[in-house]
Design brief:
By secondary structure, this protein is of the alpha/beta class. The protein is 54% helix and 8% strand. It is built from 12 helices and 5 strands. Strands 2-1-3-4-5 form a 5-stranded parallel beta sheet, with helices on both faces. The longest helix is centred in the middle third of the chain and has 22 residues. It starts with 10 loop residues before the first helix and ends with a helix. This is MurR/RpiR family transcriptional regulator.
């Protein structure tokens, strides 16, 4: 059984993963080759990479610009730096095999989640978290929009904010969401949670609320998503798993909940005395519900 690692994945590899969802098939093929073979790319010439990855040199040129490099040489230099760093865990849900024993499967599941948390911390934009905290603290109303598995994150956030006396509303139904976002105002904060940033209901309500003047906050795990277009503040985590992996790994949900816990703690500390009063009152109420 492999030992768990908490070394952060190099930012360039995180960046590639976060942009794969909107790449062309050829660039996606190249991205997968690079992620699987990055240790072999030191000093590799563009024609050699084209041959080994099975794409054209033109695709490679477009790819490096897509992920933020001015030219191919700058990309190769950065990849050389990647290979001087300590190796990070290669375990993932996708590496689980039918003949793996229980300890091995558990190790892979834990390793992937730990790696994703570590990677998220390495790229976390704390300035944006502070900006989100200030907006929420000053809000007249807080609306949260989510669907599918993102509801897990949304319900966790709603409960956290509720314990601080902020009374957020969570909308998971398209019609209920449309009504709420249509009535949004400048004093309101609207939070849209979508791992891939493409949930139609979430994006539509973020767009509608922003037009009404509300401050919009997006929580997502990928770059260049439709959700970002209608967000004043974008809070991003890392999702290290393959987009088409059938198990629906929990990595993105876990990292989003942890990131939003940072936001919750900062809100709590803004007025600890009042926060303690609300939290203690809610604790007493919850205790009454226990046997």
């Amino acid at each position: 059984m492999k030992k768990l690692s908490n070394t952060a994945t190099p930012e360039i590899l995180i960046n590639i993963k976060r942009n794969m969802h909107h790449m062309s098939p050829a660039m996606n093929k190249l991205a997968k080759y690079i992620l699987e073979n990055y240790k072999k790319l030191d000093g590799i010439q563009i024609h050699q990479l084209a041959k080994e990855s099975g794409v054209s040199e033109a695709t490679i040129t477009r790819f490096v610009k897509e992920i933020g490099f001015q030219n191919y040489q700058a990309f190769v230099l950065q990849m050389a730096k990647v290979n001087t760093k300590k190796e990070q865990s290669a375990l993932s849900y996708g590496s689980i095999q039918e003949d793996d024993d229980v300890p091995t499967i558990c190790s892979k599941v834990f390793s992937m989640n730990i790696q994703t948390i570590t990677d998220t911390l390495s790229i976390l934009d704390t300035d944006k978290i502070v900006h989100a905290v200030e907006a929420i603290a000053d809000a007249r109303r807080i609306m949260i929009f989510a669907q599918g598995r993102s509801q897990v994150t949304a319900k966790s956030l709603r409960q956290r904010l509720s314990r601080l006396g902020l009374s957020p509303c969570l909308y998971t139904d398209a019609h209920d969401g449309a009504i709420a976002s249509s009535l949004a105002e400048k004093e309101d904060v609207v939070i849209g949670i979508s791992t891939y940033g493409r949930s139609r209901m979430v994006v539509a309500n973020m767009e509608r609320a922003r037009k009404k003047g509300a401050v919009t906050i997006a929580v997502t795990s990928y770059d260049n998503t439709p959700l970002e277009q209608f967000a004043d503040i974008v809070l991003k985590t890392v999702n290290n798993e393959n987009l088409n992996f059938g198990y629906e790994p929990s990595c993105a949900t876990v990292t989003q909940m942890i990131m939003l816990d940072c936001l919750y703690i900062l809100l709590y500390l803004k007025d600890k005395e009042i926060s303690d009063r609300y939290i203690n009152t809610s604790i007493e109420a919850v205790e009454e519900e226990k046997m």
